[in-house]
Design goal:
By secondary structure, this protein is of the alpha/beta class. Helix content is 30%, strand content 20%. The longest helix has 29 residues. Bound molecules: beta-D-galactopyranose. Beta-D-galactopyranose (GAL) binds next to loops.
Amino acid sequence: MPSVQGAGRAAGDVGSGSPDGFPVLTDDLGILYGGDYNPEQWDPQVWREDAWLMRAAEVNLVTVGVFSWARYEPAPGVRDFAWLDEVLEVLAAQGVGVDLATPTASPPAWLGRRYPETLPVDVDGVRLVAGSRNHFSPASRVYRDHALAITRDLVSRYAGHPAVRMWHVGNELGQVCYGEESAARFRQWLQGRYRTIEELNHAWGTAVWSQHYASFDEILPPRRTVYHVNPTQALDFRRYSSDLLLDLYREQRDLVRAVDGTRPVTTNLMGFFPLADYWSWAPHLDVVADDSYPDPGDPGSPADAALTGDLMRSLGGGRPWMLMEAAVGAVSWRDHNLPKSPARSRLEALQAVARGADGVCYFQWRASRAGAERFHSAMLPHAGPDTRVHEGVRHLGADLRRLRAAVGTRVPARVVLLFDWESWWAAEEQARPTARLRVLDRLRAWYRPLWDVGVAVDLAAPGSDLSGYDVVLVPQSYLLSEVAAQEIERAARAGAQLVVGPFSGVADGNAQVRPGRFPVLLRDVLGVSGEEWVALPDAGVPLRVGPSFARSTSGDDDAPRATILGELLRSDGAEVLATFATGHLAGLPALTRHVLPDGGGSAWYLGTVPPAALLARVVGAALDASGVAGVLPGLADLPDVEAVRRGELLFVLNHGAAPVTVPVPAPATDLLAGARCRDVVEVPAEGAVVLAADPTESP
Ligand code: GAL
């Protein structure tokens, strides 16, 4: 059976893969390991040294040609592929596979000079120029035609090449264009969505501020305006921009598939990237691939990177994904680029595998001497192979080989977090009760208590079938469709524990506020409803936790303070577990629980932003009520330790600076050290163990 599989096909997709997805690299290669390789920056004798060193490091896949357009097509219509023939031969000779990229992320300078309309226009109407990268408008037909022409020739030449294992379209698709051609496409997109201009006027609420449109021709992208822009117009422009980028991807992908119907095609996503709705993209990717650059200076980054890994796994419906880019050491694009120890880099790689990745690749193989990324770390630093970083790279190659048993396996989860881009976009448009309520902050805060105790979690878009989950967490789903509300309610009434956070279910699909006591579509199941959103003072507001939810022993969250936002709520049957102690909302509910009849679960509602400890108690209570426990007992007392079960393997990752000792549930072998363990095992500082239960011994 294939292991890194397609994320599934949308109806009508072009391609000839089997229902199980595309043939898989990992059956043959094991965990994919490698990085971006930019041979055009080097002389041919360096390619040979590189390929040899790759083999020595057990690299089995490199992404080639991401930025090679100017080299392939130095002048309009001219082709130069001879150098790539040689590169592929050199790599193939050392058994290194190639993820061959369409070079369309960085057009040659002549394209923008000849056809200025291919260049992107920003929100102020400024046309951006060549000299960096990504200087194209995804809306430009001329750009697209040139991109297709070079892609066609590249793919036709290399489709049968034994080194080529996979195709990679563009790079981090994320461009937005406000220019004329984009405006015209936006109007077409709107016409497709609304059919008539009156329907659009209704959806956008153009009666406000005299924004009525007499025809689609009058509509513009949300360029710089005098004051707040229409929020539905802004939301639709985001939807359109995401669809446009997906369309650009699909155009090149279809061309690749028409020539090569067997190898997987992907593009590299960027985690919680704000400009593309990856739920809508995922069905079009044969392998979900992500670029992830956690900040070594941010103590929250291990948990955030885990959340991103869970998103990637969830985008593919639980199938393995791949880490397409990461940094082996420091990046060069932050203001102050902290380094990473080889141990930390290895730990991040193992974390990706723990969270479902069947591939770990880096930007980039050999450090550039020139150009904007000359100070970005690489698998082979300027100082050469005799370096701490490169030694780490070789060790990681061996580690990943030892984890072959992980390939193709899944991470089972009984908890789901709802998250979607449309709601994120709509919730953060201008002019709302508070700009401090940020969707990703809330998502991360709700994820943290799960990470702390080693409870696996999937992410799902509202509207998905939630019936397989015992705990459903809705940190902030501002824009909620009727279907999504029904699925949430159905899960709770069928026995799941449901926890909903503030500013959820506020708006409909047009980002218009649903009239009535909020959250309109969920208030029955929650047994609570509200009427005002109240920004809280900077110092926060004390909460009074009632006896039924108070701790038995005193702790530092006995006088928790709510921050950012409070809601004026009334219980319509739910038990009130905490109230606001002072201020505008004094005495009113802040936390409620509605026990549902006839085998239903409980529906919890948090009408404010509680401190982390109280949030952890709420989430913990929901886990307890449904009998969901972490994969390793005692983890809550080890704040830097992460534990994940993937397939039959238990990954224990220590992100802290001191070694820890953890219990071993059953006699096992640590696949990394090759050591048998029973009862307990020590996990080194910034280290990991991967335990495979020992079949020859009984517990
Ligand atoms: C990514 C990009 C790579 C490289 C890397 C540096 O966003 O895809 O080409 O620039 O960042 O961290």
